[in-house]
Amino acid sequence: GRFGVQHWDFGLQSKVTAKTAFLFILPQYNVSVPTADGELVQYHYGLKDLVTILFYIFIAIILHAVVQEYALDKINRRLHLSKVKHSKFNESGQLVAFHLTSVIWCLYVVVTEGYISNPRSLWENYPHVYLPYQVKFFYLCQLAYWLHALPELYFQKVRKEEVPRQLRCIALYLLHIAGAYLLNLTRLGLILLLLQYLAEFFFHMARLVYFTDENNEKLFNVWAVVFVVTRLFTLTLYILVIGFGLPRVESQALDPERGNFFSFLFNNILFRMSVLLLVCLFQASVMWRFIHFQLRRWREYWNEQSSRKRAAAAAGTKQQTKLLKRDSGECCKGGTVEASVLWFSVLMLLGFPCVCGPVLRGKRVWLVPGTNFLSP
Questions:
Q1: Domain total for the chain?
Q2: Are 81 and 168 in contact (CB under 8 A)?
Q3: Is 335 inside a domain boundary?
Q4: Domain, as residue range, for 231
Q5: Which of 185, 341, 344, 368 could form a disulfide with 180 if both were Cys (CB 3.0 to 4.6 A apart)?
Q6: Which residues, 6 or more positions from 60, have their beta carbon under 8 angstroms from its beta carbon?
Q7: Which residue, of 242, 267, 292, is where some domain finishes?
Q8: What are the φ and ψ backbone dihedral angles of 13, each rounded to 5 degrees?
Q9: Which of 204, 237, 267 is a domain's end point?
């Protein structure tokens, strides 16, 4: 409310609490780096980043609740989904909002910093100990989001069957983002996150469209193409930077004062090759699961199509059989009626009185006694 805003403003304006408030809100460890145009304020990482991450975890929880209440819950009421689909819809809805925001933000950062226009900057002057403000803030927010996903498993009452899968996904994201941040591979990490989030955005968007219309699977085909392309670019970038770029960089030493704690590990060719091997194996396993999933999906699709064709052919044959039986039945019925009429006519000629005769094609035919004609 208004009191909370005024109280927070007072916390920023007061000299006593301003330092503590800025510790939560803003990235820490700023340094002035001399450049040709003067001094440039940049940042490196440290333990105080944990406090900033904690603050933005609470911000992420609030934003998560806002998206859930004002967007996803309203759509869910109209769709009337089952419990399983309801849970998956909420998951995909939250991730679509996050991935779309992250793709736009990450694309803006890599373009303004010149990482796309100059690919050599991904490994030149490594380690990239000093970060621009927007790069460090982006990484802190990314770590905060994926850490906030852990308590959200409880808040959203995720099914027990889904918890291991989501925990594995969260752990992989935290491992890659924190690894790029601590190993000073932030430039490479930004490009890889952009590719990963782009593919994930199309996947979860396709799931949302599928839940609203189960016959619409076109976005899954788009996601399949984007997924393969992003995997190829990811593997190429890893090989280019770790396999060819970093070996050309001068040897680095442990320098805690500059925040260089782990970059010296890449001086060892065995460590570089081990990292590259792990990355290649991981990407290969991801592609294998993707190919296996697509083959199973296509097999199910063709089996469904063939079963529909067989069912349609069987239904057509059955319909033809019914028509033939009906036609033959009408012919036999007509012949029986004509025979009955002839038989009663003979009886009348012989002098046997009759009350009523047969049904002639749906009409009652009356045989009048003492006459030799039919009266309808």
A1: 2
A2: no
A3: no
A4: 14-267
A5: 185
A6: 144, 145, 148
A7: 267
A8: -85, -30
A9: 267
